[in-house]
Amino acid sequence: MGRWEPDAAGRLREAAMALYAERGYDGTTVAEIADRAGVTARTFFRHFADKREVLFAGSELLQEHMVAALAAAPSDATPMTAMTTAVLASADFFDDIRREYSRRRAAVITSTPELRERELIKMATLTTALTEGLLARGVPPDIAALAAETGVAVFRVAFERWINAPDDVPIIDVLQTTLKNLAGLT
Amino acid sequence: MGRWEPDAAGRLREAAMALYAERGYDGTTVAEIADRAGVTARTFFRHFADKREVLFAGSELLQEHMVAALAAAPSDATPMTAMTTAVLASADFFDDIRREYSRRRAAVITSTPELRERELIKMATLTTALTEGLLARGVPPDIAALAAETGVAVFRVAFERWINAPDDVPIIDVLQTTLKNLAGLT
C-alpha cells in the first residue's frame, strides 16, 4: 500500500465491475472497491473522482480519440466522410478483451437510472465535441450538428449490437454494416 | 379558487416560464407559480406532478402524436418514409404561437443541468418509443433502432434551428430542409 501500483486503475475497474454485479451499484462503496482491488481508498481517488467515474473515465478517452480522427481526416473529405472516419476510429477502443467488460458495464448502466442518465450526458457531450470538430473543418452549423448526431447514432446502434453479437464479430464490421444501413435508409 | 379554472394548465405554464426567467428555475417554488397564475397549489398539482413537469408535460403528447403518425403510415412505406411521416407530424405541435414559448423553455433548460438531463431522457424515451413503433411495423431491430435514432436526430437539429430562425419560418420547412440535408449527407 502507498507504493506505486502497476495498473491499479485496471484492477479497480475490474473490482468495481465485479462488486456492481454482486451487490448492485448503489450497494457498493469506494472502500469496498479499493479493498477488492488490494489498494487503499487514497489510491482509488488518485484514479477516479468517485464510484461512478470508474464506469465513465473511458468515455473521455473515446471522445478525444474520435475528435482527433475527425481532425485528421483529409481536408477535402465531405462532412459525412470525415464523420465516418471518426466513427470507425472508435473501433480502436473496443477489441475482443474489451467486449466482455463492455457487456458487464452495459448491464450495470441499464439497471441504474442515475447511470443511464450519465451515459446520455456523455453521448450528448460526444455529439457536441464532434459538432465542434466539424465546425473547425469549416462545415456549416446545421450540417455539422446533423452529421454529428447521425454519427453518434451510428456508434450507439453499432455498439449495442456489438455487445450482443457472437464473440467472433469485431466491432469494425458492425460499424461498417451500420454505416451501410444508414446509407440504405436515406 | 377551488372552482373549475378554464385553461389553468396554460396559465400555470405561462406563470412558471415567467418566474423561471425572472428568478431562475431553482429559485422558483410551486406556491409562487400557483400564486402568479391565480390558482391554488392544489390546482397546480391537479395538472403537474412538480415544477419540473410543467416544462415536460408536452413531451409526452409530442411522443404520442409522433408514434401515432408512425403507426398510421402506409404499411408498404419504407422504414425511413414511415419515420419521416412521424418527424413531420411533430410540426402539428409547434405553430408560431408555440415558438415563443419554445424559445423561453429552451433558455430555461439550457441554463439548468437537471433540466438538460431531463430533456436528454425525454429524447431517449422518444427514440425507444419510435423504435418500438418501427418494430411493430415489422422492421428488423437494427434498422428500427437506426431509423429511430436518425429521425430523432433530425427532429432535434431542426427544432434547435427553428427556435433560432426568424419568426416567419414555419417548423415544417426546417424539418423538410433537415431531412433533405440528411439525404445529402449520406
Characterise this structure.
Chains A, B: Keywords: DNA-binding, Transcription, Transcription regulation. Chains A, B: This is AcrR family transcriptional regulator. Chains A, B: Residues 29-48 bind DNA. Chains A, B: InterPro entries: DNA-bd_HTH_TetR-type_CS (IPR023772), Homeodomain-like_sf (IPR009057), HTH-type_TetR-like_transc_reg (IPR050109), HTH_TetR (IPR001647), MftR_C (IPR041347). Chains A, B: Residues 6-66 form the HTH tetR-type domain. The structure is a homodimer of 186-residue chains. In chain A, helix 4 (53-72) runs parallel beside helix 7 and helix 7 crosses helix 8. Chain A has helices spanning 8-23, 30-37, 41-47, 53-72, 79-89, 96-110, 113-136, 141-163, 171-185. The mean pLDDT of chain A is 93. By secondary structure, chain A is mainly α. Chain A has two domains: 8-47, Homeodomain-like (Arc Repressor Mutant, subunit A), CATH 1.10.10.60; 55-185, Orthogonal Bundle (Tetracycline Repressor, domain 2). Chain A binds chain B through residues 78-80, 116-117, 120-121, 124, 142-143, 145-147, 149-150, 153-154, 156-157, 160-161, 177-178, 181-183, 185-186, and chain B through 78-80, 116-117, 120-121, 124, 142-143, 145-147, 149-150, 153-154, 156-157, 160-161, 177-178, 181-183, 185-186.
